Amino acid sequence: MQSEPHRATANTFKDPIDLEDFKMTRVQTAQGWLEGEELEQVGGGGSYFSFKGVPYAAPPVGKLRFKAPQPPLPWDGVRKATEHGPVCPQNDIFTNTLLPGSEDCLYLNVYTKNLKPKQPLAVMVFIHGGGYKSGSGNEEHYGPDFLVQHEVVLVTINYRLEALGFLCLDTEDVPGNAGLKDQVAALKWVNQNIANFGGDPNNVTVFGESAGGASTALHVLSPMSKGLFKRAIPMSGVPLCDGSRPYEPRRRAFVLGKDLGHHTTDANDLLDFLQSVPVEKLVDVAPAVYGTELVINNIVKMFPFTPVVEKDFGKDHFLTEDPENCCKKEK
Prior knowledge:
The chain is α/β, with parallel strands linked by helices. It contains eight helices and eleven strands.
C-alpha cells in the first residue's frame, strides 16, 4: 500500500478554497490550486494574468543534488503565485559575488491574456541563456508584456546551473545534464497543466537565447523531449559550438572535488562529498575549475560544466549521441 504523498505547507498558502469566493485569478493544476494576479501591461494595452513561482519539480536538495528532477509535490489549500521563486544558486557575472537564491529553485512563471479563450492559445516556453552558469526566468530579465498582447501564453523557467545542473560522473545516478532534464520536467508540467491557463498543449513552441538557444536545439535532438513541443526557435546558440559541448566532464568533476579539498578516485565517494558541501562554497569554487587546466585551446571551453553525451544505462537519458552525429542523421 502506497503512503500518502507529502503535501507542501508554507506561509505562501491560503486557507482551503471557498468556492463562493472564487476569482478568475485562481487556476487549478495537477498539484493544487494557484492564485495569481491581474497586472497592467507596460505601455498600456490592457491587462494580463500572472502566475509566478509555480513549482514544476520537487526541490533538488540533499541526496537529490546533481540528480534528475523528481515530480512536483502536491499542496493543500491555495498557493499564492504572485512572487517569483528563488533563482538557482549562481554568482553575479559582473561582480562574481553570490546572488540571493536557493537550491530549491525549480519554479516557472505563466503569463496569459485570457484564462478562458474561445480557442486555446499558442504556448511559448522560454529558456534563458547565461552560459549554463547564470540567469533565471524572472521577468526583470524577460518580461511578458510583448508576447501576451499577441494572444500567446508565455512560460519562463528556472533550471539548475553550472555544477549543480551539469556535473557529470558518468554513473547511473549522475550521468550529467540534470539542468536539461529540469527543462524537460518543465515541459511535462506545461503539457499537463497549460490548458487550465488557456493554452494549447498541442501547440507549444520552445525558444531560448545563447545557452537557452543551444538547449532548445538539444531538445529537438533528445528522445526525452519527444512529443512535448511542436516547434523550436534556437536564438544565438547551437549545440555544435564548443561552449555547449563537453570537455572531459568526468575529470572536471574530480577536479572540482580536489579544489574543494577532497582527493578521491571513486565516483560514489566524490558524490557523497559534493552533496555535503555547502551550496555557497560549491558555487564559489566551481567556476575556478577551468583555472586548473593545463591546456585550454579554445576560450569557450573555459565553461567548466555544460551539456554532455551521457552513457546509456538503459534508463531515460537526455542525450547519448554527439549532437553533430544526430544532426547528420536528420538530414
